[in-house]
Amino acid sequence: MSVLAVAALVLVCIWLGVLTLVVVLLVRQVGLLTVRLSMASQAISLDDDGPEIGSSLPEDVASVMPEEDPAYLLLVSAGCDPCRELVAELDGRRFEQSIVALVPGREEQASEIAALLPSDMRVVLDPEATDLAESLDLESTPFVLEVEGGTVTRKVHLYRGASALIEFMESGSASVQKRNFVEIMEKEATEGR
């Protein structure tokens, strides 16, 4: 076999190896995209997040809530970018209503967020914050509950930041056009029962 034939055979083998690698990587990427798209299509239903409206708070959560009505329970996670933006937008704002902020997450991140929250908010950090969030079955953040007499009266996912929190708290139970947040009401009312 001539040197030219051996060189051509080596080049063909290298070319086939590179093509095989490219095909394997493409199949992997298609698999990852398929998994991500299937997960995205299974959107979390916000009305299933947290306690149901009209339900009583678990005892451990009720113990950290103030006596005043209505009171609000804000869940902001230390590792959540929208939560950080919400807290930064509050920028020292003072609230007339009583608010308890649960800030689960790594100690240094949670402490940074807690320092940015308004001074009139009661802040609960880990490990207690994680335990309380788990007992409420809250998974999405930022999230706020309105509580009256130990009962959840309203809840909302604050996907548009501090303005949504302020609007939610100021709207009370009045029916207001809610542009900056998704308010979760009783299922019967939304389903037309």
Give me a quick take on this structure:
The protein has about 190 residues and is α/β, with parallel strands linked by helices. It has helices at about 5-40, 60, 80-90, 105-115, 130-135, 160-170, 185-190, and strands spanning about 70-75, 100-105, 120-125, 145-150, 150-155, 180-185.
What can you tell me about this protein's structure?
This protein has 7 helices and 6 strands; from the N terminus they run ααβαβαβαββαβα. The chain is of the alpha/beta class and 193 residues long. It folds into 2 domains: 43 residues; 146 residues, Glutaredoxin. The chain has a 6-stranded mixed sheet, with helices on both faces. The radius of gyration is 25 Å and the shape is elongated.
CATH class of the largest domain: Alpha Beta
Gyration radius, rounded: 25 Å
Write out the CATH superfamily name of the largest domain: Glutaredoxin
Q: Element order, helices and strands?
A: HHEHEHEHEEHEH
For the record, give the distance between the C-alpha atoms at the N and C termini, rounded to a whole number: 85 Å
The number of helical segments is: 7
Number of strands: 6
Shape: elongated
What share of the residues does DSSP label as strand, in percent? 15-25%
CATH topology descriptor of the largest domain: Glutaredoxin
Low-confidence parts: 173-183, 186-190
Strand order of the largest sheet: 3-2-1-4-5-6
Looking at how many chains there are and whether they match, the oligomeric state comes to single chain
Mean pLDDT: 80
How many independent structural domains?
A: 2
- Helix fraction bin: 40-55%
- Please state the structural category: alpha/beta
Largest sheet: 6 strands, mixed
Q: In the CATH classification, which architecture of the largest domain applies?
A: 3-Layer(aba) Sandwich
